[in-house]
Amino acid sequence: MSEKKVFDYLIVGSGLAGSVLAFELDQRRKRVLLIGNKQNHSSVIAAGLFNPITGKVLSKTWQAEEIFSQLQRFYSHAEREMGQKFFYPMPIYRPFLSVEEQNEWMGKSASPDWAIFIEKIYTKSGGWYGVKDLLGGLLLKQTGFLNTNVFMEAIRNYFVEKQQFQEHTLAYDKLSITTNSIVYGEYQSEKIIFCEGTNTFQNPYFNWLPIRPLKGETLTVQSNLPENVIVNRGIYAVPLEKGIFKLGATYETKDLSQAITIKGLEELKEKFKEIISLPYNVVNQEWGFRPTTPDRRPIIGEHPEYNNVIVCNGLGTKGVSLAPFVSNLLAEFLVKGIRLSTYDAVDVSRYYSLYWKAVNKR
After folding, report:
1. Which residue numbers delimit the FAD dependent oxidoreductase domain (predicted)?
2. In whole angstroms, how far apart are CA 282 and each of 121, 157, 178, 220, 249?
């Protein structure tokens, strides 16, 4: 019998959550085996936007101050370690639709709690070519985008070079879990962490979680939009390279077909026309599923019966900003045994009742 290759953690899923967590643990000198594939997930098609003020009513993201300082540190450090560029801090501009909205934000900008995220308020057009903003708009800071494909490929290559990456789909029936160890084929570890997004429905250990797939479609377009700002009002336009922009995204909970749709295309084109007056050519259309939760909070922590089986999921539409935050929370818990003050808000234990309900039905 051949000797096992021993790791501290097996991480299943090489999307954004798994990639960020793997690197976080690696930087804490833990030996990680990252297992993943290139099946469709939202991280591949995402524009990678990070924005502390979101939603139809523009509310500040939960734990925004901590989350956004954490992401700045994490991705900047990752760039230096990888020697690659994938993190792009950039202001976001949101045109006003009414004088009332303009006045509301003038008032909010006087509050220190909001001012840290507001670069400037325009009471007349900001002068960005092609942007419909006769009433001015809100220019936000601590915003920008992550090129998720470049980032995840950099993480993949990083672990490949260390012989700590396996590209395949995990076979759950080949997984042996005991109190003291995890064994999977030739690999052995203390713990296994599942970062599978909506694929968690196939996982016998976490298929009881209330992960809800939210389908999103995006367009890649060629246009002459401004390249030094992200326009975001009902739709975002993220500059990927000279003359190329990512537009998105749709939010579909009913039609979960695994394909792009005419409906998605028309919705994005209509929203684009509402805020941009420039011509454009559609280069590509993509789709993906975001893993969301009923309370819009991520899910991290231990399985109800196996404390060496861990989950990190439910990052939803804010994966780029939440991934470093929850990875730090989870790493502090796993490596040091410390539950930081915000851990309880995202702890999987809030859904344990669903597990026991499923067990009792068997």
Report:
1. 8-332
2. 32, 31, 52, 6, 14
